[in-house]
Amino acid sequence: MFRRTFWFTTGVAAGVWATTKVNRKLKQLTPESLAATAANKALETGQRLKDRAVGFALDVRDNMAQREAELEDALGIRESPELPAPRRYAAIENNRSNPKYIENPTYSNNRNEDH
């Protein structure tokens, strides 16, 4: 009697385990789950590529600066030249003291006025 109970319980447990395993697998194979998994994988891959590209760009920048320093030392132009001061332009005022100001009474400065 105990043998039959043991094997019956073992069979029930194996059936529950197998059913649970199959149901989990079926849930993983639904279209929504497959789409979410694919999207996550794509985001992870994109992040890995971005990290590698940033690392590569930083390596290139460091090597470029190092090579520029080597060339400047070899050519003897290590010091940077002085840059000229920026030019400043005076703003032209549009007033009556300016000789270029022309008073035109027929022209309206109001842009909101109907024409």
UniProtKB/TrEMBL annotation:
The residue ranges flagged as biased composition, category Polar residues, are: 105-115
Organism expressing this protein natively: Streptomyces curacoi
Q: Where is this region: Disordered?
A: 92-115
Supply the name of the protein: Secreted protein
